[in-house]
Amino acid sequence: MLRFLRLAALSGGLFLSASVMAVDIDPSSYGFPLTNPFEATIATTPPDLRAKVPEDADIDQDDYSLTLRPEREFTLPDNFWAVKKLRYRLAKQDHPAPLIFLIAGTGAPYNSTLNEYLKKLYYGAGYNVVQLSSPTSYDFMSAASRFATPGVTKEDAEDLYRVMQAVRAQQSKLQVTEYYLTGYSLGALDAAFVSKLDETRRSFNFKKVLLINPPVNLYTSITNLDKMVQTDVKGITNSTTFYELVLQKLTRYFREKGYIDLNDALLFDFQQSKQHLSNEQMAMLIGTSFRFSAADIAFTSDLINRRGLITPPKTPISEGTSLTPFLKRALQCDFDCYVTEQVIPMWRARTDGGSLLQLVDQVSLYALKDYLASSKKIAVMHNADDVILGPGDLGFLRKTFGDRLTVYPYGGHCGNMNYRVNSDAMLEFFRG
Amino acid sequence: MAKRLLLIAALLCAGAVHAADAPIVSQAAPVKRIDNPDGFTEPLKSLKFNPGLDAQEFERSSLNALNVYDPLESWNRRVYHFNYRFDEWVFLPVVNGYKYVTPSFVRTGVSNFFGNLGDVPNLLNSLLQFKGKRSMETTGRLIVNTTLGIAGLWDPATMMGLKKQSEDFGQTLGFYGVPAGPYLVLPILGPSNLRDTGGLVFDFTAESQINFLNVAQVSEDHPELYLLRAIDRRYTTSFRYGQMNSPFEYEKVRYVYTEARKLQVSE
Predict the structure, then answer these.
(1) Out of A80, A188, A237, B115, which could bridge A183 as a Cys pair, Cβ 3.0 to 4.6 Å?
(2) Domain range spanning residue A40?
(3) Residue B137: inside a domain, yes or no?
(4) CATH number of the domain enclosing A403
(5) How far is C-alpha B67 from the geometric centre of its chain's CA atoms?
(6) pTM (2 decimals)?
(7) pLDDT tens column, B132-166
(8) B4-37: string of b/e by CB count within 10 Å (b at 16+)?
(9) How many domains does chain A contain in total?
(10) Keywords on this record (chain A) (predicted)?
(11) What is the average pLDDT value for chain B, to the nearest integer?
């Protein structure tokens, strides 16, 4: 009898937990105008549908710098002078207020467009805001990263945690009531690992954590991004490269228009014109931007660790030295090449071996499955048409997060963050 | 009659309202959404890829883009680092002080005033390139802003739909087929090339010769006007060193400058 009751309780529990379903936003009521994920990723929300946020002039903000790795002052070449200290930006309220940390996405600095937007949004809602660079960005790798080989998310999170603690020490006069954490894209994956780390270190006791468009399987994401420069683009010939093609289109567009006017609405107008980019061309453009990030990461990691894959270890580099030959080499290295040539060897040496699959398991959200499933303070916002996801990734999120996952039907990769519906939901999550 | 007029007015209004919230109809093909049980739509499935996934188009384009004629690269890079430091240690702190001590409407007035002066070389160069419409519009801007805008402190012309259209002598030279020449990084002024540097000198001389609103003459006795102009120029330029956050910022700025100038010349 007792056993039967237990069984009943168990099955009831299972039934209940299964009924906690992700929140799916209905496409017809969502109202986001860009149904094309590539367009959404590049152009983001049209200006008049964005959330109302304060102007820069109305925000009490400043850049600060931290010396976290003093030895890099001597080991890095002269032309790295600007990144020997880590910069961050703080927007201060004039009264005691909660503080939110923002972590930027792949290769992005603390002052990236999306981070700036999030700062304005949260500052306007009464938070102190600290903007941090991504562990994959050039300045973070040089000034704050212990191994300068980003990709092992747990290590990246430890670096980030140290930075956060240093920020708090430097801003000891700031009156903070409680701590919050958010990040977009790769920064969201970092935020999940930082939150996990905080459970044992207990420096901040983050009250709530929001992950926006995180990669689920990091390897799927980098494979997708690497693949995007392989689209079959019409108009590329022996004499016309991809960039020339895009520039020709821009030139013709401006000529038809009669004048050059760079503004927020330009991209939408351009896409409505005869010169618009096709899906393949847009994908190529997104892929190109990520390939440049990959090149920066591969070059910087190789140089700081003196691996000699791109820069010969003893090359003298001064402020006048041309870096073009190294850029040419770094450009040939995509994310996959960076992982196989630099991340895996370092990770193997430090952890006594292991396969690529094991690495992927350790650096993706899978590693935190139990923690994420049980930790009610963490929520996820994602898009059904995000280009960094693979089949099954949303399924993993649904199973793990239940009703703490919100899936938006459109938006591509981070293209709907500044849409007012999404922005309201972000604020609502932290308020509630 | 009145009824008909009313009807036309109503129709016009309806048209205006309709135009205001016209949906964004992109010309790109719609992306096919695939039905997955977990709701994922697989956007990459709708793309056409190179069958072997071994095309080197990214590499080809990028390596090609690195071919900018830059014989003075070593010198240029040093100047680039000098400018970077100057910006961090002198220019931006001064601009921040300027923002701190002046209310925003004063800064806008200053920008408009110097912008209006800048319309003189814009007009001159539009004329030199026989761009009739542009010359007319810039003349209109000058007249409206100098009179209604009180010596250019306000910019009513833009509100009337006369947009500012920059033309400098570098563009004029480019229009007549003068090649860009070697890439140059000028101290404090930033990226340029031999042709555009020549253009800069020409525009500066022309401005002091024309002596519009007596500013050039007054500036000789009051060099602080040059200083204010420099501060305003930095204040209105959004570029920040380090913003690209890349060890290869020099190469990227060089490419963007070169291509942007080509675009301006051809348009």
Answers:
(1) A188
(2) 21-218+362-431
(3) yes
(4) 3.40.50.1820
(5) 24
(6) 0.90
(7) 899 999 999 999 999 998 988 999 998 888 888 88
(8) eeeeeeeeeeeeeeeeeeeebebebeebebeeee
(9) 1
(10) Kinase, Serine/threonine-protein kinase, Signal, Transferase
(11) 88
pLDDT single digits (tens) A264-291: 788 888 998 999 999 999 999 999 999 9
**Residue A272 located in a structural domain:** no
Residue B15: band (very low, low, confident or very high) from pLDDT cuts 50, 70, 90: very low
Residue B28 lies in a domain: no
- Cβ-Cβ contacts under 8 Å, B99 against chain A: 57
Instruction: Please answer yes or no on whether B242 and A109 come within 8 Å at the CB atom.
Output: yes
Q: Is residue A153 part of a domain?
A: yes
Q: How far is Cα A286 from Cα A325, in angstroms, rounded to an integer?
A: 24
Q: Residue A9: what pLDDT?
A: 54
Range of the domain at B182: 75-266
Q: Is B165 left (phi over 0), alpha (psi -120 to 50) or beta?
A: beta
- Beta strands at A378-383 and B190-193: parallel, antiparallel or unpaired: unpaired
Q: CA nearest B260 in A: which residue?
A: A247
Q: Is B24 in contact with A268 (Cβ distance < 8 A)?
A: yes
Q: With respect to residue A95, please indicate whether it lies within any of the assigned structural domains.
A: yes
ipTM score assigned to the predicted complex: 0.89
**DSSP tag of A56:** G
In the prediction, which pLDDT does B20 show? 41
Is B39 a domain residue? no
The partner residues of A378 in beta bridges, in order of sequence, read: A209
Parallel/antiparallel/unpaired status of strands A128-132 and A86-91: antiparallel
**Cβ contact, residue pair A324, B66, below 8 Å:** yes
Rounded to a whole number of angstroms, the distance from the CA of B222 to the nearest CA of chain A is 30
pLDDT in tens, B41-84: 999 999 999 888 888 899 999 999 999 999 999 999 999 999 99
Which chain A residues have a beta carbon less than 8 Å from that of B58? 229, 242, 284, 287-288, 291, 331
Match 């601009």 to its residue by tokens. Answer: B95
Of A268, A244, A372, give the one whose Cα is nearest residue A40. A268
